[in-house]
Amino acid sequence: MTLTSPSAPAQRRQTLVRQVIEQLREQISTGEWALGAKIPTEPQLVEALGVGRNTVREAVRALVHAGVLECRQGSGTYVISTDELSGVVARRLAAAEMADAVEVRRAFEVEAARLAALRRTPEDLAALDAALRDREAAWASGRVADFVEADAALHTVIVAAAHNAMLAELYASFGAALRASLTEAMRGALRPDRYVAHGELVEAIRAGDPARAAHEAGAFLETLQGA
């Protein structure tokens, strides 16, 4: 039996679809289409990209399947993650126990804190100080959503200070779970008994003490898991 290859027109079509997928990804990765934003309509994409309707439809469908876009009946198509990895992680976390999510956070954040203590730069320390101040101000505001965002921002700065691009990318894909775990721990209110200071964690990184930084990060997550 002889296997035949796809026809040249079919191959060209698939190549064109892949090119359109990359163009759509670029719009998302560069922030042209922000997280949560509605993307242009199919006719608008056809005109902007200079391709056929079926090509646009296939490319959008591929990104929907990857978890990057979401089609909402009667409303349009929206950006729900910045890349395929984030989409996959979001779907997996939706079915995970919160305790599992916290344990994965521990794996990321303890190592990130340890590396940050070894590799932080003066610029990193300035960013950490600013993020810590924002976190304190958000707690004082009494608004759960503001505090969750400020806390997530501080941990993202710590991961950035580790200067490991792969760790930063993987951690970014975990952002939704990070916020969800803290929101659940707060249970709708910023009560004093749920407050966990992060000053010692930042100071351990400043002091260049990887063991203490890792301990502080791990202790925080133990507190969160037991909340």
TrEMBL record:
Q: Does the keyword DNA-binding feature in the UniProt annotation? A: yes
Q: Which UniProt keywords apply?
A: DNA-binding, Transcription, Transcription regulation
InterPro entries from the UniProt entry:
GntR_C, TF_FadR/GntR_C, Tscrpt_reg_HTH_GntR, WH-like_DNA-bd_sf, WH_DNA-bd_sf
Domain spans labelled HTH gntR-type:
14-82
Q: Which Pfam families match?
A: FCD, GntR
Q: Cite the Gene3D superfamilies for this sequence.
A: GntR ligand-binding domain-like, Winged helix-like DNA-binding domain superfamily/Winged helix DNA-binding domain
Recorded GO terms, molecular function?
DNA binding; DNA-binding transcription factor activity
- What PROSITE patterns does its record include? HTH_GNTR (PS50949)
What name has this protein been given in UniProt? Transcriptional regulator, GntR family
| Species the sequence originates in | Micromonospora pattaloongensis
